Amino acid sequence: MSSLFGxxxxxxxxxxxxxxxxxxxxxxxxACGEPLIARQGAVREHHFAHASGREPCDVSHESxxxxxxxxxxxxxxxxxxxxxDTVQKHLGFxxxxxxxxxxxxxxxxxxxxxxxxxxxxxxxxxxGLQVAIEVAYSSFCDPHKVQCFAQLGLPxxxxxxxxxxxxxxxxxxxxxxxxxxxQGKAWLWPKPxxxxxxxxxxxxxxxxxxxxxxxxxxxPEEIVTISGRWVSIKEFPSGDIAVKVITYDPDxxxxxxxxxxxxxxxxxxxxxxxxxxxxxxxxxxxxxxRKSSNVSIVLKEG
Length: 302
Fold this sequence. Notes:
By secondary structure, the chain is of the alpha+beta class.
């Protein structure tokens, strides 16, 4: 998917929507370095093309998303992170109030080795503390790597970016997820204190990942009517929801797409639906209800 990303004149990776059209983008291919044309017409999906007309270079979306996210953190020099008593103690967030705190970074190094570990980013806080930052799309840190972080006493944060597939990538949403949100972020180390230690100072900890914590009752399928067209909202066992326009209408399809992408949804070409992560499901439900003229519930036997 290298056709969606290019390198600007400064060497920074940019998305197709962030540059002027045509050769005015002054971009080069992330793989071969050849000049690119930003094709942003009204018919085809916007994309970069080699100025010479050759086929796009084969670079994985995951690799480019990693590079983009790491660049965002380096440029910002700070990001919001989830905080509980354990994290507050180890990272020295004096005065910070759970569930979140701003982590200020004086320096950020890309793929710098720490003994046998090679985190995506190695950051240094204002107090000189090292913090590893991992960006995850399809591959997440395994137990061995987590154990290594613990043995080194190296705080490690993992950012889940599974929602940003090639079909649902939006630069503004990616920046918000990386810098301003705590949903989808989880500390690999330090972990919460053992139960016997933490019960002395109980503190409710908000969910910081997409893991299912407790069983929940699934809601029935919901049909909302927008401009006379039906939109289905189905819930998965995980709590994620699938939103699909049943009766096609370009305006309604565009509206649903906008609402879904703003909540980090991923498009399923097979089912022609937007899959919304559970931590944004209620937001999408309410937004669709506000846009609708009628709401009905579909009850199925059994």
